[in-house]
Amino acid sequence: MTLRAFMHRIAVLAIFSLMLSGCERGNPLTVVKAVAAGVPSLAPFFEENSGLGRDTTTVRSQPVQASLQQGDTPGLYGGSKQPTVCDVAKLKRFLTDPRNHKKAQAWAGVLNIGTDEIPEYLNRLTPVLLRHDTLVKNHDYKKEKAVPYNSLLQAGISILVDEQGLPAVKCSCGNPLRPFEGDTGRISVQFEDGNKKWAGYERKSVLAVRPAPRKLARIALVDVQEPARGIDRPVGSTGEKDTTFDTKKRRTVPDLAGTTFARASRELIDAGLAPGYAGQGVPSDGARVTATDPPAGAELPFGQYVMVTVAGGGSSTSGRVTGPTTTPPPPSSGLRTPPTSTPPTSGSPGSSGGRPGKSSSPPSSSSSGRPGGSSSPPSSSTAPGSPSPGTSSGPPSPPPSTGAPATGAPVTSSAPPPPPPATTSAPATREPPSSAPVTTRPATSPPATSEPATTEPVTTEPATGEPVTEGPSTTVAA
User: Fold this and answer.
1) C-beta separation of 352 from 262 below 8 A
2) 3-state DSSP call for residue 267?
């Protein structure tokens, strides 16, 4: 190689390096701290050895087909025959003890509630086990304050989830959790402080959770030791009301051609299947579905992914997680902290859109604007996979402003088969056929629905992982 050719190559590499550094400055990596199952937190709200919660160290993260998953996605969470993975009553006693008032103030401030609202809030949470390595905004307790940091929770960690399926509390230490707000496609995971890279870690199996568009009445879990055994757990219960179901029962892929992505996601979830899509970003709710893989009529095990192809392939969030669709009310006492989450940039899947020519059912009234909170019973319940009521073909409703309580959100259920018989639900009305082009009007509120929201987990084989590494802290760039 001549000197001139060598210098030319050096110049090209230098220019390329400058271009890359410019991209990094415009969209930097989000630093994320790894949190391994069974490893104690260095600055917990609750002492790790106090028996508040118990992780399972034998769970391997399941493969995913999208880095953003709704809180009601089948296959998202697991359980076990020993439901006492999280002692909610003990956490409640601790946070309401006057001696722990400072901690209670900091804890409640993360959730934007008052300290007097803590018992009611905890009563609406449900203990589950993670089946995926999950991104969250975690919080340590330092100098009488809640200190936020992004973290990756290993599969097998026990958490409490709210009524929209969002992680709310890490059980073993009581640390409050909020949705991850970064770009899931641009993270740098740091394994340190005893959290060495765990066996089975796969970057492609990392996900973040966004809120389900509807409040859940029940959550369907998969036994992490016996994947053929499903666990139907009512929201707000800790295992005493569990029932079981067969996760190997086959589900039929519905015909989704021509529907919106939001409607397709809703139908798949209600059928006990998980919607998947290529790329980091979520397709826009109004994007029209052109095909599914497997196609309509195929029969799949409970919680399997169905890849959805949409026209144009546009995305609404580009891999960024948005905050919950409902926000808590201003606290009535204690420390007040502004909410950290941001409103969704587009309507939640299932909140609008559908097959052309269908009209929406009458909406049901909302009962609470608190995070995942609801004191009213489910409006109705039907068998998973049953025909869904018609929905508006118009564009999705504009997102609610931060801090405003959600209105018109129907209460739904996530029970697996066999469900209770359908109760009163408003029938969808049909407009007379017309040869004129279909016109659309903006939806004014989410339609009422009678089908249950399912959260039944995937039964696929666990991802093969990397061996456990020893030695100094390491950083894995996405």
Assistant:
1) yes
2) helix
Q: Which residues of 167-198 are buried (b: 16+ CB within 10 A; e: fewer)?
A: bbbbbbbbbbbbbbbbbbbbbebbbeeebbbb
Question: Rounded to whole angstroms, how far apart are CA atoms 425 and 381?
Answer: 8
Residues of the chain by 3-state class (helix, strand, coil), percent to 5? 15, 20, 65
pLDDT in tens, 57-91: 999 999 888 889 999 999 899 998 775 689 999 99
φ and ψ at 254, to 5 degrees? -75, 165
Regions of the chain short of the pLDDT cut 70: 1-9, 11-26, 83-84, 279-280, 313-478
pLDDT at 477: 39
CA R_g for the chain: 23
Alpha carbons within 13 A on the beta-carbon side of 387: 6
Do residues 195 and 201 touch, judged by C-beta distance below 8 A? no
- pLDDT for position 316: 54
- The phi and psi torsions of 126 (rounded to 5 degrees) equal -130, 130
Q: Is 200 left (phi over 0), alpha (psi -120 to 50) or beta?
A: left
DSSP states of 422-455: P---PPPPBPPP-SSPPP----SSPPP--SPPP-
What pLDDT does 4 receive?
Answer: 67
Interatomic CA distance for residues 117 and 349, integer angstroms: 30
Burial class (CB in 10 A: 0-12, 13-18, 19+), 6: exposed
d(CA 80, CA 414): 18
Q: For the full predicted model, state whether its pTM sits above 0.70.
A: no
3-state secondary structure of 170: strand
Half-sphere exposure of 284 (CA within 13 A, CB side): 14
Q: Find residue 374's DSSP bridge partners.
A: none
Q: What is the pLDDT of residue 1?
A: 58
**pLDDT mean across residues, the chain:** 73
Of 34, 73, 17, 295, the closest CA to residue 152 belongs to: 34
Query: Tell me: the pLDDT tens digits for 147-169?
Result: 999 999 999 999 999 999 999 99
Find out whether 388 and 425 touch, Cβ atoms under 8 Å: no
Say how far apart CA 113 and CA 326 lie, in whole Å: 13
What is the CA angle 63-69-73, rounded to 5?
85
Q: What is the DSSP letter of 395?
A: P
Tokens of 371: 């995070």
Angle between helices 101-111 and 88-96 (to 10 degrees): 120
Residue with tokens 């390491």: 474
Distance (Å, rounded) from C-alpha 57 to C-alpha 161? Answer: 20
